Amino acid sequence: MKIFQLPWLFLIPFFTALFGINTILVSSQCLEGQKSLLLQLKNSLKFNSAISVSLVNWTQTNDCCGWKGVNCDPNGRVTGLDLNSESISGGINQSSLFSLQFLENLNLANNSFKFAQIPPSFGNLTSLRYLNLSMAGFNGQIPIELSLLTRLAVLDLSSLYFPGTPSLQLENPNLLTLLRNLNKLTELHLDGVNISAKGSGWSQAISSSLPSLRVLSLSNCYLSGPIDISLQNLQFLSEINLGKNNLSAPVPEFFASFPNLTALSLSSSNLYGTFPEKILRVPTLQTLDLENNRLVDGSLPEFPRNSNLKKLVLSDTKFSGRLPDSMGNLTKLSWIEIARCNFSGMIPTSMANLTQLVYVDMSSNMFNGPIPSFQMSKNLSYIDISHSNLTGPVPDTHFEGLSNLVNINLAYNSFKGSVPSSLFSLPSLKKIQLSNNHFDEVSQSPNRSSPELSPLDTLDLSSNKLQGPIPPYFFDFVSISIFSLSFNNFSGIIQLESIRRIPSSTQLQSFSETSFEGNERLCGPPLNTSCSNPSTPPSVNKSDSVLRTVFDWQFIYTGLGFGIGAGFIVGPLMFWKKLSNCCDEHIERFVWKILPTLGFIFPCCNDVNDEAEDNIDEVPLTEDSDEDDDEMEDKTFMGRYCVFCSKLDIYRKKVIHDPKCCCHELPPISSSSTSSSSPSK
Ligand SMILES: *[C@@H]1O[C@H](CO)[C@@H](O)[C@H](O)[C@H]1NC(C)=O
Ligand SMILES: *[C@@H]1O[C@H](CO)[C@@H](O)[C@H](O)[C@H]1NC(C)=O
Ligand SMILES: *[C@@H]1O[C@H](CO)[C@@H](O)[C@H](O)[C@H]1NC(C)=O
Ligand SMILES: *[C@@H]1O[C@H](CO)[C@@H](O)[C@H](O)[C@H]1NC(C)=O
Ligand SMILES: *[C@@H]1O[C@H](CO)[C@@H](O)[C@H](O)[C@H]1NC(C)=O
Ligand SMILES: *[C@@H]1O[C@H](CO)[C@@H](O)[C@H](O)[C@H]1NC(C)=O
Ligand SMILES: *[C@@H]1O[C@H](CO)[C@@H](O)[C@H](O)[C@H]1NC(C)=O
Ligand SMILES: *[C@@H]1O[C@H](CO)[C@@H](O)[C@H](O)[C@H]1NC(C)=O
Ligand SMILES: *[C@@H]1O[C@H](CO)[C@@H](O)[C@H](O)[C@H]1NC(C)=O
Ligand SMILES: *[C@@H]1O[C@H](CO)[C@@H](O)[C@H](O)[C@H]1NC(C)=O
Ligand SMILES: *[C@@H]1O[C@H](CO)[C@@H](O)[C@H](O)[C@H]1NC(C)=O
Ligand SMILES: *[C@@H]1O[C@H](CO)[C@@H](O)[C@H](O)[C@H]1NC(C)=O
């Protein structure tokens, strides 16, 4: 017998190991009762199965602890349920949710409960530590039963509030009765809940109930002030958001005494008085937002080198004084918005050391002196220092290599010298606004660090003192939609053939007269100034000499028609080319006559309509076109250029005129220059 016992004894550790593993497997498997509760829950909830990613995949077959959005404890009891963004719209009242008695974490955020009330049954889930009903579409009075959830550490009932829509209310119970027993709360988010507490009662309710509070977010809660001093007992407070209330009080200095203050947002809160500088020197502070408190004044202190400030938003306050040189110590600063304040003095050159900057809006202050370099701020994407009193040149190197820069606005200052041409080849740059300065030079070729031009949609250099010919590459920005060189000293003839290079017809709008007006020494279409006028002799150099071809038919084709409409328009235009001596009105009449037959409305800019019927017969209708082209190109053409700013809107079946550039004089063209014509690419 002993002989046979030995192998059996040998197997004992093996079986115990197997058994052990087996119990672990069993215990992680969800309990049958829990599984059927979840399946009942799925059946009673209304949700859109096309949007749902969790509920929709709960099926009879598998272990429910492995379902998406479900968490279990080692005993197979469901302790976590994350059903955020599942497009749930109802069916929660009678559901089995409130029988999942082991739930500790529940997230129903971002659903659409259609302004229903929060079911009082949430009070049954007494194990909850985390409850997130933010943006779930609930509305009305918050039920008193939530105050039974005494283990809660995080409560989020916040929602975006739009005036005029119903919101959650805390009237009965009020804030104090809701919170009195929730002593374990570390995060309270009630943004958008109508707390509507009079006086400073709300801050007392919080300070007396929530000793462990770390995050307090009560924006848009109809709170009034002042902020009670008892709040300073909450020594763990780290994030405070009281924005969009009517606090009508000064900012209390005790905010500076929270040892771990990281974010303070008090925007649009009707604050007044002087902002305590001490708060700005709190070493842990990362975000300060005081935007839109027009009665708050203050100034920036010397910043210590260990500052953690990342985001500073002071726009629309009365902050004034200089920016301290110690701004250079804010090495983590990435976002600075101090627009429409009353700052003055020089912008410290130490700002050039702020390598983390992403967003800079310092517009509408009274800064003077030069602009600092931003060359080291490689992540910079937005810079607006317009409407100040800055002077001096803007060196090309200041913005060199800023590959993320999208928007630069230096308008309404007193900058002079050369437009920084490095801007024109930054790979992300969409908007350049340099108007209303004293720039007097723009380089004739972009300072290309990269082979491409920037993808500009806006180039505004108006009201400067720029002179010389218009740089040819200005016409190479393929997606430009706002383009203004008006009120400068540009000279020469607008190179129509350059404009022709712009590919899309919609962009013709960018090059109307207003783009160029106010340049006395500039002539040619789309301006009305004829280049022949001897009183304003344009300084013509070889490169920008004379318009070579009379018309670029391709261009008019693009300008007048697009889509299927285009095909119908080519014929008449070609035909007009033959009759190039005819008055331009003929073409309008012609188009006017023929388009209605195609179902288009053609409102003519000159009210040609009335007499048109009479004379229309003078124009023989023929669509025969191409044969005489070569002959025509040798003839000189002087006349008016009328269809430049017209286009067919194929969807509205309408011809759209820009009345400002309906007809333009073409400059006289010498036959020598026409003979050397070569179609521009
Ligand atoms: C849900 O299940 C379907 C098919 O059973 C699967 O294609 C899809 O990837 C699953 N979705 C998620 C979010 O697991
Ligand atoms: C909210 O849910 C919708 C789907 O219903 C989703 O598209 C959206 O991204 C969610 N929003 C957030 C902030 O999670
Ligand atoms: C609540 O859930 C939403 C959506 O999942 C999330 O964005 C938000 O941060 C959550 N709130 C808290 C306090 O965790
Ligand atoms: C639950 O039912 C009550 C009435 O019994 C109703 O007022 C409430 O809006 C319902 N809530 C939801 C989420 O359907
Ligand atoms: C909540 O608990 C009460 C008793 O504590 C019970 O009567 C009620 O049925 C429970 N509600 C749900 C939905 O489980
Ligand atoms: C906020 O609630 C109070 C009552 O508590 C009410 O008088 C007021 O109209 C509510 N305001 C809004 C915007 O719902
Ligand atoms: C803000 O509160 C002050 C004083 O409590 C009050 O005079 C003022 O009308 C309130 N402003 C708004 C917009 O409610
Ligand atoms: C300070 O607050 C941050 C962010 O809220 C948190 O991560 C950190 O643990 C807190 N530190 C202390 C000492 O409380
Ligand atoms: C930066 O902080 C140090 C002290 O930490 C201070 O001496 C210095 O003046 C501050 N300013 C600059 C520009 O470094
Ligand atoms: C702006 O600051 C100047 C002093 O720098 C002061 O004289 C002026 O009153 C301030 N303006 C406003 C609107 O606060
Ligand atoms: C930038 O920082 C370096 C090193 O911290 C310092 O030597 C230099 O003076 C700073 N430059 C400016 C313009 O403040
Ligand atoms: C702008 O600066 C000039 C001198 O540089 C000064 O004369 C003028 O008063 C300043 N304007 C404003 C609005 O500060």
From TrEMBL:
Membrane-crossing residue ranges in chain numbering: 555-576
One Gene Ontology term, aspect cellular component: membrane
GO molecular function, one term: kinase activity
Main subcellular location of this protein, as a coarse class: membrane
Signal peptide: none
Pfam family, one: LRR_8
Protein name: Inactive leucine-rich repeat receptor-like protein kinase
Native organism: Actinidia chinensis var. chinensis (Chinese soft-hair kiwi)
